[in-house]
Design a protein that fits this description.
455 residues, Rossmann fold, Immunoglobulin-like, 2 domains, eight-stranded mixed beta sheet, 22 strands, globular
Length: 455
Amino acid sequence: MDCDGRIVGLAVLACLGTLGCSSEDADTDPDADTGPEPGSDCDETRRPVLFVHGGFGAGDNFELQGMRFSSNGYCRSSLRVHDYDSTGVQSMFNFGGDAQQLYDDNIELIDDAVDRLLDDTGFDQIDLVGHSFGTGVSADYLSEPGRAAKIAHYANVAGGQSAALPVPVVNIASDGDKVVGNADVPEAEQPDVGYLDHMAILTAEAPFVEMYKFFNDGEMPEFTQPVSEETVEVSGFFRNFGDNAFRPGVMVSIYPVDAATGERLDADPEATSETGDDGSFGPVTLSAGTHYEFLLPGAGEAGREIHMYRTPFVRSTHLMYLKGMPSSGIASTLLSGLVKYDDDRADAIVQHNHRAMIAGQHVLTVDGEELLTPEVAGEDATLIALFAVDEDADGVADLTPLSRFVLPIPFLGGIDMSIPTDAEGPIEFVFEGETLHTPRWKGDTEGTVVVLFDN
């Protein structure tokens, strides 16, 4: 089996090789309901697209591109994702045994997702996108002629393959990828998308243009950024980080908040949605340009709440993911016990879904303190999620890497940051000039703050 496209999995697991893994919840539903169509401009003649994510990834990695595709007429119901326990599947490279069966089962689940998408849309072929570790998974899926016959085009994003693939391929790669590198794929088109990090190779404007052109016989998209809407329909999934385990039966409450303080504008939520058996929520109708808090009961460790804030919606999305803490496997072993919950301090996780946060290239401050230090957010780290917590509970922001992350782990990082709950005013998060404010939630009794930037 060709492993070149799975360098991401090996890089992650090289750091975690002694940790346990779990195959629970690997058979996640790859294409649950996507909600109503965005409007009359939905073009049902557009060939469907299925996205396969990489290590520690999920379907929301494709959210921005999904909004770009829908802005150009694609129906949201034909833009689907295949979620799976990538941490368990990746573990086959370190542990073998049951993990190999998990990997093989995942290939069959991709085939099931493809068949459902074909049945639901009436097409005889779809377009496939694989990212990072998902490129290796996709290449193995395509290795069987009967499966390859269902794929019209394949976008291989941020992952190399040593052998030619049996379908037309565009290979989207960049010298800025410090996880895989500018990997080659034999007999594939390889456009120049500029200097992009491992995540931005999937999510940036130039890769979208190349995917769109490749899927549409060279036609240029009319819009290269999401087209704004006054009201937005939001749906997606509530699943655990890492293993993508479902979080069913949870009442998600969505509050509009004051942009200047993060405080709720009303005691009652503007919208609520109980998650389904597959963790799906929505659709709910919200206002574009409004700041929102998503309250996730029981999503944190020991059943604590998570308060999630993101930059305002511009356009309807069916791929917003709410993340809970993993309960088993590699991700759980890595993250459990990381936060020292204390009501004197707030605990924060800062995420960026669409590009790495890199010291010297970007600026991220929390209460005025710069968190993107070279030790925490060097270019090689490809930092997507940063845990800002007071590791030694001493009330001092040392701004040093958390001990759990002294050995670099792709995509994840931690910094010793003390955020007092008795300070005046809200917590202020600023990334590249965009500001989000949140209340100073008490870490132990009130839960964790998650801030999601997508600028």
